[in-house]
Amino acid sequence: MNTGKVDVLLGLQWGDEGKGKVVDVLTPRYDVVARFQGGPNAGHTLEFEDQKYVLRSIPSGIFQGGKVNIIGNGVVLAPDLFMGEAKDLEKSGHPLKECLKISKKAHLIMPTHRILDRAYEAAKGKNKVGTTGKGIGPTYTDKVSRNGLRVGDILSDFDRKYSEHKERHMKMLAALGWTDFEGFEETEKLWMEGIEYMKGFQFVDSEHEINNLLRSGKNILCEGAQGTMLDVDFGSYPFVTSSNTICAGACTGLGIGPNKVGNVYGIMKAYCTRVGAGPFPTELFDETGKKIRDLGHEYGAVTGRERRCGWIDLVQLRYSVMVDGVTELIMMKSDVLDSFETIKACVAYELPDGTRTEEFPYEIDDVKPIYKELPGWKQDMTKCKSEDEFPQAFRDYVSFLEQYLETRIGIISIGPDREQTIVRK
Predict the structure, then answer these.
(1) Distance in angstroms (rounded) separating the CA atoms of residues 246 and 170
(2) 384 HSE (CA, 13 A, CB side)
(3) Distances in Å between the alpha carbon of 340 and those of 130, 135, 268, 283, 317?
(4) Number of neighbours of residue 182 by Cβ within 10 angstroms
(5) ∠ CA 102-114-138 to the nearest 5 degrees?
(6) Which of 4, 12, 78, 147 could form a disulfide with 142 if both were Cys (CB 3.0 to 4.6 A apart)?
(7) How many other β-carbons are positioned within 10 Å of the β-carbon of residue 278?
């Protein structure tokens, strides 16, 4: 942790690595937690004190009293979903209006964005991306095409701005031949209630807010959503999200200069998962994949969708470590592999022409994983209180990963609870 620097926390795979829990574990070290990209399609699940919480848009620092939480300009926000999430948290005793600030430059997900999302997916047929239908992509499309509606627009002449954007979307839907508007009026009514609810929060110029906090000596943790392999530039395009999920996204999503980035924490699972469509080289279609899914409770926090499961992919991970500039790794769900006789790790790809590579290629649709097999540890680690209690085979697995990825694993999670987290010496 560096005074005068922001630290960044990122997922290194295809999302769902367990960022929410790690942010909650790390936040006692920080004064500020800021979210820099993504929308309510990504859920961060946190479990402690026998309670389970799923955060979609709100930074995970809200569970630590006295922290400043910021939703940055790189985020896209759905007022109705934000209201529901915030009210649930307020009911459980977390006073959000005192500790959460929202960037005026964050873009709003309109009800018509969700309809456009469904219409675009339907138009793609068998080539659909597998979005969650939350309107994320169309909102970022409006942002990039300079047609977006922003949080700051709520403060003046909002009804006119909203109507103009809605009318434009309706013309687009008519051109697509879309006719399914079931439930739209109810959704729009709730959305407008969400707009009124949001007015109770402090809207800020988050770039000034963050940099002023830095200058005053505050320690800031920047929290990403999704994972590196869903980055719109560096992920498995086109099966990606619509924002930059890599470390550089913290600079553009919060208004921070690159010289202000300190530590970069990269989160990975001890295996690998993916939700939705798209290539996944180490995916397992057998009983082993099903066993990993069941033991790891691999179902989407927001959607409930089954996650596709596979062995850890070190070609992909080394690529993520490189593009993110990771300084320390955090490994989640190590305990899920406790009962396996053999653990596999992908160390190279065989390309369609038969050649072998350890570099992540332009396309991964038809690559074959080349595995290294390691002995399993066959021991329940969920009760371990320190790394000294780890079985030797697991220590060997950790050392092998560190050597291949050329990066230290500083934190190891051995269960969903906050207490089941081992910070290594």
Answers:
(1) 33
(2) 22
(3) 31, 40, 19, 17, 22
(4) 9
(5) 75
(6) 147
(7) 20
**Coil, helix or strand for 116?**
helix
**Strand ranges (DSSP E) for 121-231?**
202-204, 220-223
Q: Which residues is 240 bridged to in the sheet?
A: none
Residue 344 pairs with which residues in a beta bridge? 373
| Catalytic option among 16, 24, 80, 335 | 16
Decide if 31 is catalytic: no
Q: Is the dihedral of CA 299, 42, 329, 358 positive or negative?
A: positive
Residue with structure tokens 């047609």? 147
Q: Which of 44, 94, 107, 169 is catalytic?
A: 44
- H-only helix segments in 74-177: 79-91, 96-99, 111-124, 136-144, 158-175
16 is catalytic: yes
Q: Do the beta carbons of residue 307 and residue 345 sit within 8 Å? A: no
Determine which helix (DSSP H) or strand (DSSP E) holds 315, and give its type and residue range. Answer: helix 314-324
User: Considering just the CA atoms, what is the radius of gyration of the chain in Å?
Assistant: 21
Q: Which residues contact 372 (CB under 8 A, 6 or more apart)?
A: 344, 345, 347, 400
296-351 pLDDT tens trace: 999 876 667 789 999 999 999 999 999 999 999 999 999 999 999 999 999 999 99
Angle between helices 111-124 and 184-198 (to 10 degrees): 130
**Residue found by looking up tokens 């080394």 in the block:** 318
Nearest-angstrom CA–CA distance, 136 and 298: 23
pLDDT of residue 228: 97
94: which DSSP letter? -
